[in-house]
Design goal:
The protein has about 325 residues and is of the alpha+beta class. It folds into 2 domains: about 230 residues, 2-Layer Sandwich (PmbA/TldD fold), CATH 3.30.2290.10; about 70 residues, no CATH class.
């Protein structure tokens, strides 16, 4: 993988560019699902590819390929340079990069059990057992369960001299019980909606979730929702569990620090941001002091570096 990334970087760097980087990516995935006592979707896949980015003629150029032969990489490098050259027709000013030093690192997300060492039949057996427990509860109309595993290795190399090798092992699992009655459908999921719980872990996550142990309770809750009282109106304390809180942080803090939103280029698509290029212009700290001495808490919350902010203009 490192050789592929360095080969791609050399293919484009020797053509004369201001900056270039290459990403070699290797992905292995497995997805297993069940639905009402039967296997739903069972798939395994592996893929590899190279992405090349160049800064030349004051413009960005991009290209990618899954042809990892020498000629395939050379063609992708030539295409990235061609796209950069084409950008000069619409260029208003040249792109200038913010100063950055080189980084060399290797990182692997920690896990105890390689999920791909577990046979698919075992994955399927656990999900079918969970499915059976869900449907054992009277009133459950539909049972769904799933597992998803991914190992993603990316090697990044740049003309700055950076060489970063990262491997992420992602595991996810969960189930849902649906109950249909009197024209209404109620649903309960465990441990989260949208397919369950996902973490940078190995197969040990599946064991930690205790899917089979929690199936009867979740199924009973789905059926019980039909007889539950309506939520009362009025003001009261609201408790957010970790999944909802995580989503709130993602939407309210994660997206607003994207530079394209701050600059307004996403205004017609995904919205704008409450942040500005000056982190403290027009802002108050947590005690209501405008640009006062007690800014440390706000600084910890505020963006130290914008997402997507590698490119900077001389007068910004």
């Amino acid at each position: 993988m490192k050789d592929l990334a360095l080969s791609a970087l050399d293919a484009v760097a020797r053509r004369g560019v201001t900056y270039a980087d290459a990403r070699a990516l290797e992905i292995r995935e497995r997805e297993v699902t069940t639905k009402n006592g039967k296997a739903g979707h069972v798939s395994s896949s592996e893929s590899m590819g190279i992405g090349i980015r160049v800064l030349a003629f004051g413009c960005w150029g991009f290209a990618a390929t899954d042809d990892l032969s020498k000629s395939g990489i050379e063609s992708a490098a030539a295409l990235a340079l061609q796209i950069a050259r084409s950008g000069t027709a619409a260029r208003k000013r040249e792109v200038t990069l913010a100063p950055e030093r080189k980084y060399e690192a290797t990182w692997v997300s920690p896990f105890q059990i390689d999920p791909f060492s577990i046979p698919v039949d075992r994955n399927l057996g656990i999900l079918l057992a969970v499915d059976a427990e869900l449907r054992r509860v009277p009133g459950v109309s539909l049972a769904e369960a799933s597992m998803h595993f991914e190992r993603r290795r990316q090697v990044f190399a740049s003309t700055l001299g950076s060489l970063i090798d990262q491997t992420r092992c992602l595991a996810g699992a969960g189930f849902a019980a649906l109950s249909y009655k009197d024209g209404e459908i109620q649903r309960r999921s465990y441990p989260n909606s949208f397919g369950g719980q996902y973490q940078l872990k190995g197969y040990e996550l599946v064991e930690e979730l205790r899917l089979l142990e929690n199936a009867p309770r979740v199924a009973e809750e789905a059926v019980a929702l039909h007889a539950a009282d309506q939520c009362p109106e009025g003001e009261s304390d609201l408790i957010l569990d970790s999944s909802q809180l995580g989503l709130q942080i993602h939407e309210s803090i994660g997206h607003p620090i994207e530079l394209d939103r701050v600059l307004g280029s996403e205004a017609n698509y995904a919205g704008m941001s409450f942040l500005t290029l000056d982190p403290f212009r027009g802002l108050y700290d947590l005690e209501g002091n405008r640009r006062g001495r007690r800014r440390d808490a706000l600084e910890r919350l505020y963006a130290r570096r914008w997402l997507g902010a590698a490119a900077a203009h001389p007068h910004d």
